[in-house]
Amino acid sequence: MELHELQAVLDATYGQRDRKRGLAPTVAWIAEEVGELAQAVRKGSLEQQIHELGDVLAWISSLASQLGIGLDECAARFMDGCPHCHRMPCACV
After folding, report:
1. CA-CA-CA-CA torsion for 41, 43, 44, 50, nearest 10 degrees?
2. Could you give the angle at the alpha carbon of 34 between the alpha carbons of 31 and 38, nearest 5°?
3. What is the pLDDT of residue 88?
4. Which of 74, 50, 64, 72 has the alpha carbon at shortest distance from 10?
5. What b/e readout covers 2-39, taking b as 16+ CB neighbours within 10 angstroms?
6. Distance CA 66, CA 28 (A)
7. Cα–Cα dist 29/39, whole Å
8. How many domains does the chain have?
9. 93 pLDDT band (50/70/90 cuts)?
10. Domain holding 54: CATH number?
11. Cis bond leading into 89, ω under 30°?
12. 3-state secondary structure string, the chain?
């Protein structure tokens, strides 16, 4: 699945409710999910890690949709390697 396809599915599924909730609560949900991801990375199973990574991705997608930004556009800055030194692997010090 391409990022824009995922974003469209998530927006069709949750977008109306997320837009009604608003930007600030969406950012708060992202922060909460990142905390849950951190705990899953430290102490969780692979299944828990996959679950929490998915939740973080879904909330990031929701925020991007609310801002009118495509996830593909966000990812594009990394297509040629490091956006600062333009190398793969990164050579930044």
Report:
1. 0
2. 140
3. 97
4. 64
5. ebeeebbebbeebbeebeeeeeeebeebbeebeeebee
6. 14
7. 15
8. 1
9. confident
10. 1.10.287.1080
11. yes
12. CCHHHHHHHHHHHHHHHHHHHCHHHHHHHHHHHHHHHHHHHHHCCHHHHHHHHHHHHHHHHHHHHHHCCCHHHHHHCCCCCCCCCCCCCCCCC
The encoded tokens of residue 14 equal 């949750």
∠ Cα 84 49 9 (to 5°): 75
* Tokens of residue 82, six digits: 């490091």
Task: Please give the model's pTM, rounded to 2 decimal places.
Answer: 0.92
Domain hosting 14: range is 3-76
Q: Is position 25 within any domain?
A: yes
